[in-house]
Amino acid sequence: MNPLIHELFQRSRLLSKELNVALKQHGLFAAQWTVIYSVYQHGEMTLTQIWRYLNVEAPTITRTVNRLEQMGWLATREGKDRREKYVSLTESATVRLSEIKETIIQFEERSLKGFTEEEEELLMKLLKKVSSEGV
């Protein structure tokens, strides 16, 4: 067994846990932030586009989006048929985003403080090569 995969999982869990701590002041969890950030980054998206982009099960995304809608972060509208749902940020979310971005930037800087810019680029390149299919 390759210890690299184990280390990747460990680091991923650690980062997720620490991001949860950082986002607590905003009443969010890391999984919720990834959905908000995806919609921020790409604009209005369907639920299908979100779960495919994040590689998360559809029911999980549906529950997360429903919760974020209740919390006032996201708004949804039906598409051409009832099964298709579009998701966008609310005006309130757009206003609160700058505060959260500052929290995220501080978290990222703490997490990557030992890296040079070149090392960050190399790590990104290497991570993009990791695949469950070996490609």
Give structural notes:
The chain is mainly alpha-helical. It contains 6 helices and 3 strands, in the order ααβααββαα. The protein starts with a helix and ends in a 6-residue tail after the last helix. A 3-stranded antiparallel beta sheet has the order 1-3-2. The longest helix has 21 residues.
Would you summarize the structure shown here?
This protein is mostly helical and 135 residues long. The protein has helices at 3-23, 30-42, 47-54, 58-70, 91-111, 117-129; strands spanning 45-46, 74-78, 85-89. α1 crosses α5 (91-111) and α3 (47-54) packs across α4 (58-70).
Order of strands in the sheet with the most strands?
Answer: 1-3-2
Number of domains: 1
**Count of DSSP H/I helices:** 6
**Distance between the first and last residues' Cα:** 18 Å
What are the salient characteristics of this protein?
135 residues; mainly alpha; Arc Repressor Mutant, subunit A; 3-stranded antiparallel beta sheet; 6 helices; 3 strands
List the helices and strands and how they pair.
Blueprint: H1 3-23, H2 30-42, E1 45-46, H3 47-54, H4 58-70, E2 74-78, E3 85-89, H5 91-111, H6 117-129
Antiparallel strand pairs: 1-3, 2-3
Helix pairs in contact: 1-5, 2-4, 3-4
